[in-house]
Write a structure and sequence with these properties.
By secondary structure, the protein is an alpha/beta fold. It has helices at 17-28, 59-69, 93-121, 142-161, 180-185, 197-208, and strands at 8-12, 32-37, 45-46, 49-53, 74-77, 124-129, 167-174, 219-222. The protein has 6 helices and 8 strands; from the N terminus they run E-H-E-E-E-H-E-H-E-H-E-H-H-E. The chain binds NADP nicotinamide-adenine-dinucleotide phosphate.
């Protein structure tokens, strides 16, 4: 498949449970990939991927990552994290701030860093990974749910702001993903009901394609049978 031949894709969180599948899906489709994580994964350039390390919960980190990546056609923003803080009155300030930093602020910083070049080129695809909890609140997950709901609002806002510029901005909303970390955390769950990372990766690739040029501001549920 040569779908993304000649396209430069920036994938944040590319080393994670979902990110590894997304990275592989774009490589399989002949993309040139710049992968960002907090820590170094692999050599600077290996297997068609350039690895950049940056802390994307800071504006400076996101700007550094975008500068190192160069002009990109697609941003896939996967960086995020999960913490169950308990009921609101027991949720610590540390958890609240960490969820907003990881799930919302990182997206704001990355989008802000790549949009100017996309506007100039009049082409771009931005896909963020949100969560079902961003649409359907869950008890004891206020920090996580609020951070993903705010991410949804950010995505829809940027979609409106860029809609006449050849740019599309969308999010996918998984339920539980079948990752090694989730299997370890929930050993007695029925994994077959969860969503496979490869299935999410395929949807992200489609949203990044020219075929999806008219899909903008969508929050796409990918729930499997969870
Ligand atoms: N897992 C699920 O069931 C589930 C369900 C719904 C939505 N999601 C969402 O899907 C996305 C991916 O989830 P996942 O389970 O694959 O996550 P994960 O395995 O924990 O991976 C997180 C990735 O983000 C990177 N990262 C973390 N903090 C960072 C920071 N401050 N700066 C730069 N990079 C950072 C990590 O890099 P390092 O390895 O270098 O730290 C890693 O590549 C997240 O947005 C998550 O909220 C997950």
């Amino acid at each position: 498949m040569r779908q993304f031949s000649g396209k430069r894709i920036l994938i944040t969180g590319a080393s994670g449970g979902l990110g590894s599948a997304v990275l592989q899906a774009f490589l399989d489709r002949q993309a040139t990939v710049v992968a960002v994580g907090r820590t170094k994964h692999g050599d600077r350039t290996s297997g068609g991927v350039s690895w950049v390390s940056a802390d994307l919960t800071t504006s400076a980190g996101a700007l550094d990552a975008a500068r190192e990546a160069g002009e990109v056609d697609v941003l896939v923003h996967l960086v995020g994290g999960f913490a169950a803080g308990g009921p609101v009155e027991k949720t610590t300030g540390e958890i609240w701030t960490r969820m907003l930093d990881l799930n919302l602020n990182s997206a704001f910083y990355m989008i802000r860093a790549v949009v100017p070049a996309m506007l100039q080129k009049r082409y771009g695809r931005i896909i963020a990974v949100s969560s079902r909890t961003g649409l359907d609140p869950a008890a004891n997950l206020s920090a996580y749910g609020v951070s993903k709901a705010a991410l949804n609002a950010l995505i829809r806002t940027v979609a409106l702001e860029t809609k006449d510029s050849g740019i599309t901005v969308n999010a996918v909303l998984p339920s539980v993903i079948d990752t090694p970390a989730n299997r370890q955390a929930m050993p007695s769950a029925d994994y077959a009901r969860w969503v496979r990372p490869e299935s999410i990766a395929a949807t992200i690739c489609w949203l990044a394609s020219d075929e999806a040029a008219d899909v903008n501001g969508a929050l796409v549920p990918i729930y499997g049978r969870a």
